[in-house]
Structures are given as C-alpha cells and as structure tokens.
Design brief:
Layout (H helix, E strand, L loop, with lengths): L8 H18 L13 E6 L10 E5 L2 E9 L2 E8 L3 E8 L3 E8 L7 E7 H17 L8
Length: 142
C-alpha cells in the first residue's frame, strides 16, 4: 500500500474547482444559467407576478445566500454555510412550492423562499442535500 501525500493549497483548490465544474454538468442546462459570479452553482428566483419584488436563493460551493428584495433598491441578505445546515425541506403543491433551509442552531431563523415552481423546489432541495453530503467531515462552527 502506497503512502499518502498531502496536497498543496493550489492543488487542493484546483481539485475542488474541478469537482464543482463536474457537479454543474449534472444540473440540467434548461435550469442552469450563466452568472457573473463563478462560484454560484444554482440560482432560484420567486415568480414575479406573485411577488412584486422576487426573492433569490443563491447556492454557492460553500454557502447558501438568501436575498430578500424588500423594495426598489432595498434588500436583505442572509448567508448560511453548508456545514451549518441541519435539514432542507421542500413543500410543494400542484403548481408552486417553497423551500426551507433549517440551520443546526435552532435559535437562528430558517432561510425561506416561497412562490417558486414545484420543479425548482424539488430540484433545489436535491442540489443542497448533495452539497451537504459532499461537505461531510468538515467541522461545524458550533
């Protein structure tokens, strides 16, 4: 059995970026879009006619960001790191759904995006769960 060698930080970063690119290919092209930020894996947006200022959920390789658009030019942003997520729930109806991202620390408010399509809610839940599983072994900050 050969002895293991540790990777340099540059090699580790390249390996991580390669894995993220490989995972991006699994997301259907119809859903995946090109974004300005290279580390965004998936983006979900509330439906406009049902919400005047649509909320956004950005899934990055190490955290999830919820952007609540309160008014024109006004927004509230909340981040939750992947290793701090306890569970993800997608509640769906015949047409629409919403997604709950519940943190391990139960005193924190869960991230909630509603008025999204049923398909997006289920697909986003699966993406977040896969990312959480891939981050197993990373210690929580709590």
């Amino acid at each position: 059995m050969a002895k293991f060698e540790s990777l340099s930080s540059k090699e580790a970063k390249e390996l991580e970026e390669e894995a993220v690119e490989h995972y991006k290919e699994k997301v259907p092209k119809k859903i995946r879009q090109t974004y300005q930020e290279p580390d965004i894996i998936h983006k979900v947006k509330s439906m406009f006619p049902f919400q005047l200022f649509p909320d956004e959920l950005l899934i990055k390789k190490d955290k999830i960001t919820l952007v609540n658009n309160v008014g024109p030019g006004m927004r509230r942003m909340r981040d939750l790191h992947l290793h701090d997520i306890a569970q993800v729930e997608a509640d769906v109806g015949p047409l629409f759904g919403h997604l709950h991202v519940i943190p391990k620390l139960r005193t924190e408010e869960p991230l909630l995006i509603d008025r999204i399509s049923r398909k997006e809610a289920l697909q986003t839940r699966k993406i977040i769960e896969d990312l959480i599983e891939s981050h197993q072994g990373i210690e929580s900050t709590y």
